[in-house]
Specification:
The chain has 417 residues and is α/β, with parallel strands linked by helices. The chain contains twelve helices and 19 strands. β1, α1 and β2 form a beta-alpha-beta unit.
Length: 417
């Protein structure tokens, strides 16, 4: 994804997890962002400033390097930064930060910073659960500081519990959400369907298609990073997605239809977000018109008589005739009142494909269609894609690019609906 033009101030404190901040810095650099690092004196005992200088190609601010003849000081270093991320943030740092204490160069930099701040705690479970630390985290959340919650796992001290630094990729996602927040999508409830449905023949066999679910995952991720309240209903793997995307695993077309209708009912009147320190009740959001992105490849037919257990081939014989019935057409069936609907259409017919996709506007009530002309089975599961964006007023070709970048282009056009 592209964070070109964005700049992050990364604060590193004296935790054993300091080495993971190297991966956090690398993810931002890989996305095109500029990264400036400030380290507490305790952090330099775990990771050398030289390591971060090699990763970011920028000088690191720490006690010995502070200078007032350039911008390598706790006042100037952050002036052109878009956000301040402290990862890892020790219990000591959390408690001092909440009380405005600035007795080291990192805390001084934080006190001088007037843009979004996020912290990723990393500490012993008992230290994090101490009432002082818990109160400090609540105070920071009330002060609009984003808390990237730690993991539950075996800690470096040997204890097992909550306190391990969040996964670097998750830290990256939550910070990217701050940097890419879009007022149009912010707090807008959106339902995304993805993957190819699996229609059961028996308990070990099913009818499906080659859909990988990658495009749906990319659309859900782009929506999440833009600030939307996303519900992803999918048949495919969601590993690697931001953890705060609410996901529902389904199997067949009937299940997908049922959950999609339920999710849209919730989207019209409720909130799908998970409660968090920054949003404990997940209420009070401005009601906006919900969206449905129908990215799933729903099987047209399903076995009429699915069997329990495994059917033995010696009971079938040389030929197996499976009687099928037509699945409900989800896009056509669902109620579209008070929502905007974006359909996805994959075709292999170079002559009639575009017309077939355009017909979804009138035949199934879609507000827009993303048309993808496939070259064959090799087109499935790729990391890149291209589409034609179709509405009643326009057709726009969006060139081939990675699916996350493509998803952002789709969202840009969807805002015009």
């Amino acid at each position: 994804m592209n964070l070109a033009g964005k700049k992050i101030l990364l604060g590193v404190t004296g935790s054993i997890a300091a080495y993971k901040a190297c991966e956090v810095a690398r993810l931002f650099v890989k996305a095109g962002a500029g990264v400036q690092v400030v380290m507490s004196q305790a952090a330099t005992r775990f990771v050398s400033p030289l390591t971060f200088e090699a990763l970011t190609r920028n000088p690191v601010l720490y006690e010995e390097s502070e200078s007032w003849v350039n911008n390598l000081n706790h006042i100037e270093i952050s002036k052109d930064c878009d956000m301040f991320l402290i990862a890892p943030a020790t219990a000591n740092t959390i408690n001092k930060l909440s009380k405005g204490i600035a007795d080291n160069i990192l805390l001084q930099s934080a006190l001088a910073f007037n843009k979004p701040i996020a912290i990723a705690p990393s500490a012993n479970t008992n230290m994090l659960n101490n009432h002082q630390t818990k109160n400090s985290l609540k105070m920071l959340a009330v002060s609009d500081i984003t808390i990237i919650e730690p993991q539950d796992k075996l800690l470096a001290c040997g204890d097992t519990g909550n306190g391990a630094l969040a996964d670097p990729q998750e830290i990256f996602w939550q910070c990217a959400k701050i940097l890419l927040k879009d007022s149009f999508w912010s707090n807008r409830r959106v339902v995304v369907t993805g993957g190819g449905t699996r229609e059961k023949i028996d308990d070990v066999r099913y009818i499906s298609n080659f859909s990988s679910g990658k495009m749906a995952n990319a659309v859900a991720t782009a929506l999440y990073l833009s600030g939307a309240d996303v519900c992803l209903i999918t048949t495919k793997e969601t590993k690697g997605l931001p953890s705060n995307i609410y996901t529902i695993d389904v199997e067949d077309a009937e299940e997908m239809l049922s959950f999609t209708e339920d999710a849209l009912r919730v989207a019209r009147k409720g909130v799908m977000s998970k409660p968090s320190l920054n949003n404990p009740e997940a209420v009070g959001m401005i009601q906006k018109e919900p969206f449905l992105f129908m990215v799933a490849a729903v099987a047209d037919y399903t076995p009429l008589y699915p069997q329990t257990g495994k059917i033995k081939k010696n009971t079938i014989g040389q030929n197996w005739n499976i009687e099928l019935k037509q699945n409900p057409d989800i896009l056509k069936t669902i109620k579209k009142d008070s929502i905007k609907t974006v359909a996805f259409k994959a075709e292999m017919d170079n002559d009639a494909g575009l017309a077939n996709a355009t017909n979804l506007l009138s035949e199934k009530g879609a507000d827009a269609v993303c048309y993808n002309l496939l070259a064959g089975t090799q087109s499935f599961g790729t990391d890149e894609n291209e589409i034609i964006w179709i509405t009643k007023d326009e057709q726009i070709k969006i060139d081939k690019q990675n699916k996350l970048s493509l998803a952002f282009e789709i969202l840009k056009n969807a805002k015009k609906l």
